[in-house]
Amino acid sequence: MTASIRTARLPSGIEVPVLGQGTWKMGEDHRRRADEVAALKLGIDLGMTLIDTAEMYASGGAEEVTREAIEGRRDGVFVVSKVLPTNASRAGVMRACEASLKRLGTDRIDLYLLHWRGGTPLAETVGGFETLKQQGKILHWGVSNFDTEDMEELAGVASGNAVQTNQVLYNLSSRGVDFDLLPWSRERGIPVMAYSPVGQGDLTRDRRLLAIAKRHEASAAQIALAWTIRQPGIIAIPKAGSAVHVRDNRAALDIKLSDADLAELDRAFPPPSRRRPLEMI
Asked: Which residues hold substrate (predicted)?
């Protein structure tokens, strides 16, 4: 049985959990495959039913891991995958989507994202996405690693207002989007999907986070994750390759950071005072 957790609403009206599961680096080592599949399955049981993957991850291997994890329970999972910009032409997204569907073992992708901007005009990529929607092969589409100017340009493209999310790097040590992209997205009801919400491991050892974590009887990673999803309109997709890590991530949802905690975190990780270039990893 799948647990229920807090949700965010996409512009289409669909509700998705604010805490999902990432799969970056999954599928790279067959020796870890069983643990990765088990971790994703446990996350689904705990209510983290949004799984984010991409054709780029392990050259499709992460999609194959996802396939094993969702087998027999596809209807209870919200699958997100991403197309590379080199495949972002109208014909390219058709081929890439078909390949992802095969690796995922499903007849549709719930949310299909352009991984980052390339040389293909946005209108052409959006046209391909809209055709895939008409064919029922994807239900929704969105983007990833788009800055505010990119989102404004997208809004001016035919059917560009059908965008459902923008997936960007966002965590305590990478919060440049707080200055303009998050307010822009919030005003338009477009949730932001935060990847690497606890950084690349540095935040888990940060002494300032550890001090706050001690007060909450939690880990530094849990505090970082709780901070990321504290506000509406944010969906976090941390990756976890073990059952212990999955349970730790889920427990972050139950942490309530106080005003004093948040002020302390702002002093340690100051919010941006000016616009910054979008960060990517």
From this structure: 115
**Cβ–Cβ under 8 Å, residues 54 and 115:** yes
- H/E stretch holding 52: strand 50-52
Q: Exposure of 11 by Cβ count < 10 A (0-12 exposed, 13-18 middle, 19+ buried)? A: middle
Q: Is the pTM of this model over 0.90?
A: yes
- Residue 216 annotated as binding? no
Alpha-carbon span 65 to 68, nearest angstrom: 5
Residue 11: partners with Cβ closer than 8 Å, 6 or more residues away: 162, 163, 164, 188, 189, 190
- Fold type of domain 16-201+232-244: TIM Barrel (3.20.20)
Over residues 55-88, the pLDDT tens digits come to: 999 999 999 999 999 999 999 999 999 999 999 9
Residues classed as catalytic: 57
CA gap 237, 95 in Å, rounded: 26
